[in-house]
Design goal:
By secondary structure, this protein is α/β, with parallel strands linked by helices. The chain has a single domain, classed as Alpha-Beta Complex (Maf protein). Helix content is 29%, strand content 22%. It has five helices and six strands. Strands 2-1-3-4-5-6 form a six-stranded mixed beta sheet. β4 and β5 form a beta hairpin. α4 packs across α5. It is globular.
C-alpha cells in the first residue's frame, strides 16, 4: 500500500449520500444505523452496482483500505468500508481476516461457528478468550484513505445463543456480560461493539 492510499489526514464528511462498501446485509444495517444520526444517506455497494473486490491484504486495516479505495474510485463518492472478524487466542488468532471465508461461499456462519467449536475441541483445556476486531476506512475519490480501529474483548460460548446480530455474534460473550452479542438488543451491542469503538474514532475525526 502506498503513502497516498493510507494517510493520517483530517477531512470532514458532509451530510448526504455515502457509499457503504459492503455486500453483507447485516453489516450494512449496523453501519447504516450508526451513520443515520449524522445526516448521512447510506448507499450500499450492491445498490451502486459496485463489484466486491478480492480481499488480498493480511490485516483488517489493509482490507478495509482496499475496499474503501476501490468503492470511492469506482463511484466518485466518499465511501466507508469495514473489515472485521473474530480472533480466538487458542487458535492462534484464527479465523482473523479469514472470518468470512470460514463461512464458505454461501456465507453460512452456522458452519463457521461449528468449525471454531470443532477446532477448539481438538485442544482440550483451551482458553476460550477471544475478541472482535474492526477496521473502518473512510475513502475519497482522490485515493486518500483514513483508518479507524476498534476492538472488544470477551470469550466464546457454545452452543450458539440468540438470533440477533450476524456472523459470529451468537457465540461471543463480551467481557463483563453473560449474554452473547446474538442475544443483546441492538442498542446495547452498538454501545460496546468493536464496530462502535472504531466508529467513535471515525466520528471524532470526520464530523
Amino acid at each position: 500500500m502506498t503513502d497516498k492510499e493510507v494517510r493520517k489526514v483530517t477531512r470532514k464528511i458532509l451530510p448526504g449520500p455515502l457509499i457503504v462498501a459492503t455486500h453483507n446485509p447485516g453489516k450494512l444495517k449496523e453501519i447504516s444505523d450508526l451513520l443515520r444520526p449524522f445526516g448521512i444517506e447510506p448507499v450500499s455497494a450492491g445498490a451502486a452496482g459496485l463489484i466486491e473486490p478480492q480481499e488480498t491484504e493480511k490485516t483488517f486495516a489493509g482490507n478495509a483500505a482496499l475496499k474503501a479505495r476501490a468503492a470511492s474510485l469506482a463511484s466518485g463518492m466518499t465511501s466507508l468500508a469495514d473489515d472485521s472478524g473474530l480472533e480466538v487466542d487458542a487458535l492462534g488468532g484464527a479465523p482473523g481476516v479469514l472470518s468470512a471465508r470460514w463461512a464458505g461461499p454461501g456465507k453460512d456462519f452456522r458452519h463457521a461457528m461449528a468449525r471454531v467449536e470443532a477446532e477448539l475441541a481438538e485442544r482440550p483445556g483451551s482458553d476460550f478468550s477471544a475478541r472482535f476486531i474492526c477496521a473502518l476506512a473512510a475513502g475519497w475519490p482522490d485515493g486518500v484513505v483514513q483508518i479507524f480501529e476498534g476492538a472488544v474483548e470477551g470469550h466464546l460460548s457454545f452452543p450458539p445463543r440468540g438470533d440477533r446480530g450476524f456472523g459470529y455474534d451468537p457465540i461471543f460473550v463480551p467481557r463483563g456480560f453473560s449474554q452473547t452479542f446474538g442475544e443483546m438488543e441492538p442498542q446495547m451491542k452498538h454501545a460496546m461493539s468493536h464496530r462502535a469503538a472504531a466508529f467513535r474514532k471515525f466520528v471524532e475525526s470526520c464530523f
